[in-house]
Amino acid sequence: MSLRTATRIALAAQGFADPRPTGTVDRRHLKRVVGRTGLLQVDSVNVFERAHHLPLFSRLGPYERELLPRAAYVHRDLFEYWGHEASLLPVATQPLLRWRMARAAAGEEGWGRTIRVLEEHPGFVEHLLQRIRDEGPSSAGDLHEGEKPVGPWWDWSLTKTALEHLFWAGRVTTATRRGFERVYDLTERVLPPEVLAMPTPSKEEAQRELVRIAARAHGVATETDLRDYFRLGVADAREAVRSLVSAGELQPVEVEGWRKPAYLWPGSRVPRRVTASALLSPFDPLVWERSRTSRLFGFDYRIEIYVPAPKRVHGYYVLPFLHDEALRARVDLKSDRKAGVLRVLASWLEPGSEAEDTATALAAELRAAAGWQGLSEVVVEPRGDLAPALGTALR
C-alpha cells in the first residue's frame, strides 16, 4: 500500500473525508463523530480550548458548546472513564472496560497513589463510598476529609485520591461537572439501566472488541497503534490482533516507508482525495500517537507545555493544521477571553508546503474558531516563518 493511500484511509476513518454540516450541528452529528473516533480524550488545559471539544470542531466546524456536556451528563450518550487516558466514551463501551475496573478494584490497575490508597486506607475508601451513597452526587471538595493538597495539579488530598481509586474501579463515575470539577455518583445511579444490564464479556472478548474499535478508527495501523488506542498491555493486544487476523477480521498489509507490519480494517473507505482543513488538538486521535503522526505525515510533533519557555521550539500550546491530506503548519494559540481576541503567538510552515495557500486556508479556520469561541478578532504575533503570510491572509 502506498503511503498516500494509507494517509487517505486514516483521514477517512477519522471522519475527515465527511463534509461538514451545512446547518445546525446537533446530537446526531456528535454521535457520528464519536462513532468514528470511538472516544474523546479529556484534558484540563484551557489556554485555547479543552481537548474534548476540539475534535468535534475539527470535524464539524462551529457548534453549540453545550452539545457535548448535554450528551454526556443529560442524555447519557457518553460516560467518563480511562480509555486513552481520561476519556469520554459511548456508554455501550462500558462493559468492554469492566475487566479494567475489576483489576483496579483488586489493586492491580491505576496510578501508584490510587493503588496504595486501597492498601493503606481501605476503611476510608469504603467510608467515602458510603457518603456518596447517602449524600448523592458530590465533588472532592464536598467530601473533603483529612490532609489538604499542598501543591498544584496532581498533588491530591487523600479524599481526591480515594475518589479516583473508586473511579478507576468503576464503583463511581462522573455524574456531571462544575466547570471542570468532576462530581461523582454511584455508577448504578448514573449509567442507563440497559447498559448496566449488558452482560460482562470475558477479558479476551472485550479486548478483541476494543481492538476492533481501534482498527475501525485507524483504518490502517500497526500493532502498536492498535494497542495504544485503549492503552492495552503488549501481550494482550498482540493476542487480540493475532486472533482477529486468524478470523479474517484484520488484513495484514505493508505500508510504504513503515518498518513494522500493518493491519487494514476491511471495508475501510479509500477516498480518491481528501480536502479537509482543520485545526487539530494535541490530543486528537489522528495525532495523539506521535510515532504514527510521523509515519503518516512526516510531522514530528511534541507538545511543549512542560518544556521551560526558553527551550520551546514552536510554542506552549501548538496545534497542527491539516490541509489537503497533509499537516502543513503548526500554530501556537491562546484565547484571550478578556480582550476578546484569538492570539496566534507563533505560526510555522511545514517543509514542502506553499505559504500563501496554507495561510489562506488557515486564516479561514482561525476566523471560524474565533467566532465559535465568541472572540471578535484574530491577532497574529510576528513569530514563525508563516506569520507574514498568515497576517496578510487575515487582513
What can be said about this structure in brief?
This protein is an alpha+beta fold and 395 residues long.
What can be said about the biggest beta sheet?
Answer: 5 strands, mixed
Task: Name the structural class.
Answer: alpha+beta
Distance between the termini: 42 Å
Gyration radius, in Å: 22 Å
Question: Which stretches of 5+ consecutive residues score pLDDT under 50?
Answer: 150-154
Number of helices: 17
What does the overall shape look like? Answer: globular
The helix content is 40-55%
Q: How do the strands of the widest beta sheet line up side by side?
A: 10-11-12-13-14
Strand content: 15-25%
Name the average pLDDT.
Answer: 95
List how many beta strands DSSP finds: 14
Question: Features of this protein?
Answer:
five-stranded mixed β-sheet; 395 residues; 14 strands; 18% strand; alpha+beta; 17 helices
What can you see in these coordinates?
This protein is of the alpha+beta class. 41% of the residues lie in helices and 18% in strands. The strands form four sheets. It has a five-stranded mixed beta sheet. It has a three-stranded antiparallel beta sheet with strand order 1-3-2. α5 packs across α9 and α13 crosses α14. The longest helix has 18 residues, at 355-372. It is globular. It starts with a helix and ends with a helix.
